[in-house]
Design goal:
It contains six helices and seven strands; from the N terminus they run αβββαβαβαββαα. By secondary structure, it is an alpha+beta fold.
């Protein structure tokens, strides 16, 4: 994504990309980008094709909307993450098919594949269920994101975070791919899992690779 475009345009571009990839349908999901004193977030009930720069709300870190358009119903979730995880610069929440299916089991995705480590740990957590748009959901998601780049939302979908929007979207695509793979593994039986030592080796290799790029 072009780093020279505004945060508002980046959000619109990101939403269109996610819709094109089938990660969301219509006005599903939401995307946000941190600013110096708050964050831009996608609005409520807008399809990506309908969006213009002036439709993107700007919220401060008190949760006050300084724009004229109603923000996504999940703004509390984004607010809590930005307030608690200072290194996070962008958030992507989708209702992608396979992650949403797995989220209905209310189980973590275990270390069935080494690429689980890309999301930051030995597994991918599933947050406890809470009604969408509530503070309780925001708190549950924050807990599931501890030392992770993404998690499932029980009976809902997935959320990922990153140092920029491109990274958060890439993690969302990775989580969706892993969800699909694990779903099919579950159909055919019980997959053999990598142990903690094996996963920690991969996590260390990922950390080393990122530090050089």
């Amino acid at each position: 994504m072009n780093n020279n475009i505004s945060s508002e345009k980046a959000i619109i571009s990101g939403l269109k990309y996610l819709e094109k990839k089938g990660m969301n349908i219509g006005s599903e999901g939401n995307v946000s980008i941190r600013t110096k004193n708050g964050f831009f977030i996608s609005p409520s009930a807008f399809k990506p094709s309908e969006l213009k720069k002036e439709n993107i709300p700007l919220l401060n870190l008190n949760g006050e909307n300084t724009g004229s358009v109603k923000p996504s119903s999940e703004w509390k979730m984004h607010l809590v993450i930005y307030k608690k995880l200072k290194n996070i610069k962008a958030i992507v929440h989708t209702h992608s098919l396979w992650a949403s299916c797995l989220s209905c089991f209310r189980e973590n995705i275990p270390s069935f594949h080494y690429m689980i480590a890309e999301l930051g740990g030995n597994d991918i957590k599933c947050s406890n269920y809470a009604t969408f748009g509530t503070k309780k959901l925001a708190e549950n998601v924050l807990k599931a994101l501890y030392k992770r780049n993404g998690c499932l939302l029980a009976n809902h979908g997935q959320i990922t975070v990153g140092k920029n929007l491109d990274e958060a979207i890439a993690f969302a695509e990775s989580l969706e791919k892993l969800s699909k793979q694990y779903f099919f593994c579950r159909i055919f039986g019980k997959p053999r899992l990598l142990n903690n030592k094996q996963m920690n080796e991969v996590i260390d290799l990922f950390s080393s690779y990122k530090s050089k790029h």
